[in-house]
Amino acid sequence: MLSPGAMISPLQQDLEDLATLLERAKVESLTHLNALDQLPTKSTYSPKLSGNQLPNQGVGTLRAVDEFNERLRQVIVASAGPRYWGYVIGGTTPASIVGDWLATAFDQCTFATAGQGDISANIEIETIQLLRQLFNLPDTYQGGFVSGATMSNFTCLAVARQWAGQQLGVDISNDGMVPGITVLSAEPHASAVKSLAMLGIGRNNVVRINHVEGNREAMDISDLEAKLQALNGQPVILISSGGTVNTVDFDDMISIGKLKEIYTFWWHVDGAFGGFAACSPTYRHLLAGWENADSITIDCHKWLNVPYDSAIFFTHTRHRQLHIETLQPLNSPYLGDLLSHVNYQTLVPESSRRLRALPAWFSLIAYGKEGYQTIIETNIRLAKSFGTMLAGSDHFELLAPVRLNTVCFSLKESEAEPERVKTFLSTLNDTGLVFMTITVYKGRTGIRAAFSNWRTTDTDVRMVFDKMQEISYPSLKPAS
Ligand SMILES: Cc1ncc(COP(=O)(O)O)c(C=O)c1O
Q: What is the reported pTM?
């Protein structure tokens, strides 16, 4: 109890003012969300970071918000807005924002489905069931939430490594790494290779499979088979793409499934964003056969349009025991019996985690299958429409057909002048109207525009295309 007249600490004051603080958070959030259409997609402001002192006595939340607004707010860009087309960023549905706020307010530590006080892991199990339905995957997959597709790839490949060790008669998670594991892939995402490095499998053990001939990134299945034959019974992990980042090409999953009946290998599908093709009857054939994979990566903070950080992995339940063997912590008495019920400490790399499933749960319940079908199909339609505009213009050319939601293009006749493409892109990004990213595709410097935000409309596409045409910059003209 405070004596009358005693100074009240900022923390106690904040508790008394909680309603005001949350109201302020609502106002700040609404101001940002309502302006997403007009806010710049690029910040040119660099806050002065040195010299700020940790206050002895804090200033309280309202003044912290003021300081944030004065000094740091300007680095915030409209990355959740309709014209942020760099990487594969996605946005946030209203329901997912509500779910995220509540997950923070509830502050659960999502371990287990029983026996640990906090049993919010049951919500995660239910959300995984909903996601299995969204992706038309059978219930022979268990799943969990991690912070992003990198950690999802990591988790799946950790179980794959345990499997590979088992083929060699070694329990790697207990007894350490062994040489001799080969990883095959045609177009592995950078994060999968990073996971191999972190897992001690080694970046250099990736053997590239040839691409299908033509303007394709998918793997050549006959080359895959030849490599599997040559490896003759050694443990092999296959990382397949569904789809690739530059042109969203998909490996032929039906043929991979057939090879799996003949050869022994672990089959991982990186479907971080391409997995969402499953939401559309028109595009789900691209993933036909993926339900036979051993493990699958899906990113939720990309096309599910929930806030960062959110991704899931699926591992086939035929590997349930192997999965637990890989990730179970040391069975310390204070953690209770980890194995008597679903305990995410035995399924994910982290121990303590927030209730990461809640934003996804809210969004899935709020918008359902149809809502997501609409988001996915609209983004694909917009990508194709943007591609058609570029292909018909005097200045641009498509580097590959628009297969799904990503447009990979360049300036015409820019083969010998990659700098011209880079200069054009930075001029365009500097307008703050749109954000795209640079890439290299089949040796050509190009630009990627990825459509994964539910807010993007035809007007945005037209506005960006007009701006691209309008930028009167020497970079547009081939050097004569
Ligand atoms: C195919 C693919 N896999 C993995 C990742 C890594 O995802 P994250 O950045 O969420 O870790 C990405 C990100 O762009 C991706 O496109």
A: 0.89
